[in-house]
Amino acid sequence: MIIVTFLFFTALVGALTWFLTRKDDHGTSTGYFLAGRTLTGGFIAGSLLLTNLSTEQLVGLNGAAFTDGVAVMAWEVIAGASLVLMALYFLPKYLRSGIATIPQFLEERFNGTTRVITSFIFIVAYAGILIPIILYTGATGLMGILDLKTITGIESETTLLWITVWFIGIVGSIYAIFGGLRTVAVSDTINGFGLLVGGVLIAVFALNAINDEGIFQALGTLKEAHPEKFNSIGSSESSVPFSTLFTGVLLLNLFYWTTNQQIIQRTFGASSLAEGQKGVLIAGVLKVLAPLILVLPGIIAFHLYADREGFKADHAYGTLVNDVLPTGLAGFFAAVMVGAILSSFNSALNSTATLFSLGVYKQMSKDASDQKVISNGKTVGAVVAVLAMFTAPLLAGQESIFGHLQKMNGLYFIPIFSVVLAGLLFKRAGALAANLSLGIGCGILILGYFVPPFSGWAEKVHGFHFLGIVFGVLMLFQFVMSKVNPLAQPWEHKHSGDVDLTPWKWAKPVGIGIVVFVLVVYLALADFSVLTGG
User: Fold this and answer.
1) What global pTM score does this model have?
2) What is the pLDDT of residues 134-161, one digit of tens each?
3) Tell me: domain 2-490+500-532, CATH 1.20.1730.10, correct?
4) Nearest-angstrom CA–CA distance, 456 and 83
5) By CB neighbour count within 10 A (0-12 exposed, 13-18 middle, 19+ buried), where does 45 fall?
6) At what angle do helices 55-68 and 401-425 cross, to 10 degrees?
């Protein structure tokens, strides 16, 4: 029954996506990489949400909540505040330039070398870090939800992991390589609705498993049994100590939601600034509510499974879903989960193809036709997909896959974000400072993560504080260089004319509301005594 409903809903999403995108323009660069600049707020919000809410979040963040409790909601609520900054500050500037990629913006702001360096960093990071983690967490979650070991009769967890990774990788590649951005956005939106419905149902069923007298009674039982899990203020032993919310955690969120090509590419396809802002802020509203499906189930799993010998935190979500959902709904949610996995996977692949095609190949072959550019992008996407399918199973054994993802993200998030922000703030900053910051920033972070004795010092100050220090140094360096070696004329941000820049009239009120809500939630759940050992 589970397999039947799983296959039915998976096929249904595929059929609906094909029907809605069958007449789309996939033959030009703008059509393939930017959805022809036709995306409206609903599609942008759905695509942003589902690209983010994949299994590295569902499996990884609930696994972190299993260990650290509600303090890990920092990743979600700070994301909501970051989306406000994206909508009100960064998005108008990106759409003014009419860009398709962040490296393209950096070429406009600095020079072609900056674009090549940034494109290279993004492509290597997506191929070596992001896409393998998406495949690994996707396979792990799917194995738990569908109980594939029992269904397939394959006893070897390693063999089953390889098979599941390749299944996800092949299906995702078809969406990303042959469909383009609008196909990705439409399938994301359909699956996003299913994910929200399914995620809420899982929380409700899981609470009912604790206390069948009602969800509020169940929450009371949970809080009474584990009061330490309901403190928004992370202790020094937590994966997100409170002080890191103002350094590494904040910076990683800001990069992710304002500069990360994989995420914000769908905003570049907005039909207007108003539609773009609407989509980004709708995603922000949903993001601050996301702990209901990304954190609470992990705490419930702790209540139910913590006493099991050898139970792994990253298995918490899949096990919970398999245990509490009725058989028919388990198949439906597995299909939605596959959609979420495919969303992040094919978005990363589509972004990788875009970065290579427009940032590398197009620069090397300026006279190449759109068909040639798209063809080369598809080829690179296929190669990256195959490499990721080979490397993803090798991630098995990580103590916390979500923690590993955030650590590895810092290697490229921080240098790129510092250069983008400096380019916007320091009008006389030149290309030399930007290019040096990209190279030196990545080098310092690699030393601090992997090379003794530097790595020992970085861990001593906490990894997230280390990211904050490196970011501060890079920003200071670029500011000083803007004074010592300034551009002859301040940079002038010209309007390409590609997008209507009339803002959404409700953008500021909605943005302020999101920030106020974030503060209220934090204060309502805060117990500052953990900071003093009280």
Assistant:
1) 0.82
2) 888 888 877 877 778 888 888 888 899 9
3) yes
4) 34
5) buried
6) 110
